[in-house]
Amino acid sequence: MNNYISSFVLNGYSALHTMFYPISTGNKPMHEMPRFPQDIWNEVLKHGKSDLVALACASQLLNKLVQDYAKNNSPVDCFGDKDWKYFGADPSAAHPVPLKMIQVFDSSKWMLTWIPETINGKELTLSSIDHFVSDFKNGKDAFKSIYSFPLKNSGINDKTVEPFKAHWVLLSKDVLDGTRLKNFATQGKLVREAGFEIPNLIDAVVSVLMHDLKTFNLFYPDGSNARKCTTRVRELNEESYRILVGGVSARGLDVRRDVGIDVFGASCSAKSIGT
After folding, report:
1. Can you give the pTM of this predicted structure?
2. Which ranges of the chain have pLDDT less than 70?
3. I need a labelling partner for 141 at 20 to 30 A (CA). Which of 7, 70, 179, 216 fits?
4. Rg (alpha carbons) of the chain, rounded to whole number
């Protein structure tokens, strides 16, 4: 199926377009011609996921069909607004996942997460997500920090997070190969060459916590030496040290300052813009 769709796009026009939306015959306008049901179109687009961007560029009609498909069919295993609501949050309504993210997303390698600006009327911060997850796990009156090291002792607080608007973020489930035992400048170069960016603090924290909560798996798990899954992020703490996120264990999520140990790697991320 993918090869067929790619061939159709490369040939410049419309074997597939005509199959589903035939060119008018005689005086009968095209919009009155019979067309395949939407569920069949959805199956075609689902199996042609790697070609969605190309299909959307082929014609206005295909663009609309692809955009409608993306709007109504969030990728399986993403963490969207419905997942937030399942866990008792009232986030903003998620925008459609960008087509390029749908093409890249593979749940064995990536986390795809809707990052709202607020949850239940409160600004999404390191503190509010801490309370939210802790309340869900332990009950309304039992607060236990998800961070294995107190943030204040690491020079990290809610103001450390770069300002953001609601967005989708794609985050790799492991650090990029070759970024361990490298300094941050080299890591950033390698991540950019792979077509991505170093993750932001709030994106890494929320993605790991909520996917852990949803799947009962520990993403970015604790380990020893080079097996420890911890990423550097874009932000610096109050003393201008790079911040680390990862090392999940029974103690919680490890968010702390980087003291210059180059064993930590860098993850790949991408986020939607204009939201």
Report:
1. 0.76
2. 1-74, 139-144, 224-227, 261-262, 274-275
3. 216
4. 22
